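WARN retry 2 of 3 for item q-0093 after timeout on previous attempt; input resubmitted unchanged.
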Amino acid sequence: MKILFLGAGAVGGYFGGRLIEAGGDVTFQVRAGRAQQLAARGLVIKSPLGDANIRAKTIAQAGGEAFDLVVVACKAYDLGQAIEAVAPHVAKGAVLLPLLNGMRHNDDLRNRFGSDALIGGMCQIEATLSPEGDVLHKSKFARMVFGPFEDFPADVRRQQVLSTLAELGAKASFTSVLQDPVDQALWDKWVMIGTLAGITTLMRGAVGDVLAAREGHELIEEMLHEAIAVATESGYPPRADYLASVRQLLLSPGSTFMASMLRDIERGNPAEADHIIGDMYRRAHDFGHDASLLRIAYCALQTYEARRVRGGLS
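OK item q-0093 returned
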């Protein structure tokens, strides 16, 4: 199976690189600067699960080569450009596997390409890129979950892609899970990441910093409750055991756990505000929920973006 990763950042670089190590035929579609980094240094991964320097194949845009699977590993604010970049690959028969947070991108991709071109997926990893372009994996935890959607069962073509990816992932240096259907896993992660991103960007601190505040514990619980309400109204209430693990992550005193969105803000970069927090708030509003913390967090993120765009951060 021929696999294309759209992007070779921390997420695409890690999972794509590990699939190459496992014997996968992987190519990265990247911009010129990233292609130059990969050509000069290789795809460098520094991880508690093992360091690697991998020779990576790259392309700048769609050409004559056809791919069976295209993994979309971009930031949500780049989705519009990503859709145009993958369109020629889909026209040649590729199946799309997005690894973005939230749910709105699945609707956008399905509206553009149809349900038969899409499978669902998400990943869990704490990783970033160094200034040199190395993938810095910060823990031993790395997980990818993928599968068909409940409303759109896999046909023969998508089932073959899923089965082959599962076989390859079983040999890779990350946990690979084929889940049928995949919807609950996507909603579960959104509940966690929506709460984490909402509270850490609003408070401008890690989980432990928020918990050190007088009302920190209560505010985290309130934001988690708002996210749970949206998932439940949508038909995907989180299981009790999953929520126990989420609370362990979000309510650990002294924890330095924070959303990558906060790191983006601290660097003056765009944030995935609309996709992760805004869409969660809009759904809560449509269901008739107050969701006051999501509302405030989204307003704060929009304020940051307006200031960033006008050059007011410096």
